[in-house]
TrEMBL record, chain A:
Keywords: 4Fe-4S, Iron, Iron-sulfur, Metal-binding, Repeat. It holds the Pfam family Fer4_7. GO terms for cellular component: membrane. This is 4Fe-4S ferredoxin. One of its GO terms (molecular function) is 4 iron, 4 sulfur cluster binding. InterPro entries: 4Fe4S_Fe-S-bd, 4Fe4S_Fe_S_CS, NADH_quinone_OxRdtase_chainI. Residues 71-102, 122-151 form the 4Fe-4S ferredoxin-type domain. It comes from Rufibacter radiotolerans. It comes from the Bacteria. PROSITE patterns: 4FE4S_FER_1, 4FE4S_FER_2.
TrEMBL record, chain B:
Pfam families: NADHdh. PANTHER family: NADH DEHYDROGENASE SUBUNIT 1, NADH-UBIQUINONE OXIDOREDUCTASE CHAIN 1. Keywords: Cell membrane, Membrane, NAD, Quinone, Translocase, Transmembrane, Transmembrane helix, Ubiquinone. Its EC number is 7.1.1.-. This is NADH-quinone oxidoreductase subunit H. NDH-1 is composed of 14 different subunits. Subunits NuoA, H, J, K, L, M, N constitute the membrane sector of the complex. Belongs to the complex I subunit 1 family. NDH-1 shuttles electrons from NADH, via FMN and iron-sulfur (Fe-S) centers, to quinones in the respiratory chain. The immediate electron acceptor for the enzyme in this species is believed to be ubiquinone. Couples the redox reaction to proton translocation (for every two electrons transferred, four hydrogen ions are translocated across the cytoplasmic membrane), and thus conserves the redox energy in a proton gradient. This subunit may bind ubiquinone. It comes from Rufibacter radiotolerans. InterPro entries: NADH_UbQ_OxRdtase_su1/FPO, NADH_UbQ_OxRdtase_su1_CS. GO terms for cellular component: plasma membrane.
Length: 204, 367
């Protein structure tokens, strides 16, 4: 206390009064400048940094700053291009991607970059409530089907709605694909067993 | 009896205005928008807040001293409300026109301290108790410079009656009983002989009837900020150090009552400052030759226009002072306890003592 009081006294009464007045003048200027407001400008706009005085708050739901085209917010999976390789689920640091896969009985087409698709995805869920927007999944994705979009405003009342289901199979279809694969495996096993039997019968 | 509902209406109305103004001004000072959603420009935000406070659960901590805890908001608000009893609203409307008005006011408003201590002690919470202790130390200390500044006004006006002090500061001077021969001289200097009795306006306000009272006004204003726990003297409820100070355990309507008392106290100290220093319900415009600004903005004693003009000037000046309080709050940082005491005891109190002496000399030789 002693030291500060000393400096207070050394600075003198008028200096203090002056600095108090400067503080009042500063806040008063801000009050007057409240007539001006910042406009919702794009960051690319040349006037973006020109706004130096006045209110800086935006009335958010009504006014928003435009997001650049390459903004990286909500994940989107283009399921037609997905080869269900599971790399995204493995690299995800917060485990927000859940994938199930069912092998197909035949080739089921190609992705847009020409990779063959051999797996169905009965479940491809992304829990965006957990997602930390690190973007690792989009970098490992071999077919670039997983991207981050510029949509950043997607609140939900029920947190369950934050789980996004990207599969294009209905549960019935998924069951059917599973059954088809099982049937095919069974048929192959049967054929193998019969071939083995036939071979054994020939030998002796 | 007319005055009581009038005073309550006045308090609530002004509290609503200043509550809204405080939010908007603080927002503008910080380059924000403030409330915008409830009503046009957020004007109904206060109603939303009151509804929210009313429907909140009334929580009394299990370990609290229940009687003290429940009674404290009542004591605090009653003390502040009682202070309004002697404040003149217009030349002929005053809730209680006692000749000891100012004395009563200082005494009854001091009860506020008891309520604060009850709240802090009754909460059985160390932060609440610390806040209450700080509050009591601060208010008791600052009553001294405030009281001395008021005393210098009393010396000049030779009266404790707030209505009498009001009459002395304007055109109606000679209409007060027993004042038929009184005269207001410019700056209170009888030797100069400039008679401003019929000029009125700000020339007959106390800060110009005895120019040194403008220093008294500054001292009183600073001390009154501390009396109503306003920043920069808000250490009793220093949010960053004490959670919320003495009212940390209060919820719902009890909290609302404490809050209302704080704003009512702001209004009361502003009204007292206006009555004592800034011409009370008298117009600020002087009569200049044929331009009878003061006459036009005063109205006859006891008439409707007289009531309305007087009320307008009184509340208008008080609102200006309250706006300054808000402005100060959002400009200056909170004082530390030792800085607070340093300001009170080493600066304001000696200055106020000198002022009392000068006022007495002035009264003897000038007026």
């Amino acid at each position: 206390m002693g030291k500060e009081t000393g400096s207070l006294q050394r600075r003198g009464f008028w200096r203090n009064a002056q600095s108090l007045w400067q503080g009042m003048a500063l806040t008063f200027r801000h009050m007057l400048q409240a007539r001006r407001r910042r406009a919702p400008l794009d960051i690319a706009d040349p006037n973006y940094f020109a706004h130096q005085t006045g209110l800086v708050t935006l009335k958010y739901p009504y006014e928003t700053l435009p997001v650049p085209e390459n903004g990286r917010y909500r994940l989107h999976n283009e399921i037609d291009d997905c080869i269900v390789c599971d790399l995204c689920a493995k690299i995800c640091p917060v485990d927000c991607i859940t994938i199930e896969s069912v092998k197909a009985t035949e080739d089921i087409g190609e992705t847009s970059d020409g990779t063959k698709k051999r797996l169905f995805a009965p479940m491809f869920d992304i829990d965006l409530a957990k997602c930390c927007y690190c973007g690792l999944c989009t970098t490992v994705c071999p077919t670039d089907c997983l991207t981050m979009t510029k949509v950043y405003d997607f609140p939900e009342v029920d947190i369950k709605n934050m789980i996004y289901h990207f599969t294009d199979l209905s549960p019935e279809q998924a069951e059917e694909k599973k059954r088809l694969w099982a049937d095919q495996q069974e048929a192959v096993a049967k054929a193998k067993a019969e071939a083995l039997k036939a071979g054994q019968q020939k030998k002796p | 009896m007319l005055a009581l509902p009038f005073v309550i209406f006045l308090i609530l109305g002004v509290v609503v205005i200043i509550f809204y103004a405080e939010r908007k001004l603080s927002a503008f000072i910080q380059d924000r928008l403030g409330p915008t959603e409830a009503g046009p420009y957020g004007t109904l935000q206060f109603a939303a807040d009151i509804l929210k406070l009313l429907q909140k659960e009334d929580i009394v901590p299990a370990a609290a001293d229940k009687w003290l805890f429940k009674l404290a908001p009542l004591v605090i608000f009653a003390a502040v409300l009682a202070g309004f009893a002697v404040v003149p609203l217009t030349p002929t409307l005053i809730p209680s026109g006692t000749s000891l008005g100012l004395f009563f006011l200082l005494a009854i408003v001091s009860l506020d301290v008891v309520g604060l201590l009850m709240a802090g002690w009754g909460s059985n919470n160390k932060y609440a108790l610390l806040g209450a202790m700080r509050s009591v130390a601060q208010i008791v200390s600052y009553e001294i410079p405030a009281g001395l500044a008021i005393l210098s006004v009393v010396i000049i006006s030779q009266s404790l009656d707030l209505q009498e002090i009001s009459f002395q500061q304007g055109l109606h001077l000679r209409q007060f009983p027993g004042y038929g021969q009184e005269t207001n001289y410019l700056f209170g200097l009888k030797a100069w002989g400039v008679d401003v009795t019929q000029v009125g306006g700000f020339l007959t306000w106390n800060i110009l009837r005895m120019p040194l009272l403008s220093i008294g006004f500054v001292i009183y204003f600073i001390a009154s900020l501390a009396e109503c726990n306003r920043a920069p003297f808000d250490i009793p409820e220093a949010e960053s150090e004490l959670v919320a100070g003495f009212h940390v355990e209060y919820s719902g309507f009890r909290f609302a009552a404490l809050f209302l008392a704080e704003y009512a106290m702001m209004l009361l100290v502003s009204l007292v400052a206006v009555v004592l220093f800034l011409g009370s319900w008298n117009t600020p415009f002087p009569n200049l030759g044929p331009v009878r600004l003061a006459d036009w903005t005063t109205g006859a004693l006891g008439s409707w226009s007289g009531h309305l003009w007087a009320f307008f000037w009184l509340v208008g000046k008080a609102l200006v002072l309250m706006t300054v309080q808000v402005w100060l709050r959002w400009t200056y940082p909170r004082l530390r306890v030792d800085q607070l005491m340093h300001l009170c005891w080493k600066l304001l109190t000696p200055a106020a003592l000198v002022l009392v002496l000068l006022a007495a000399v002035w009264r003897l030789f000038m007026i």
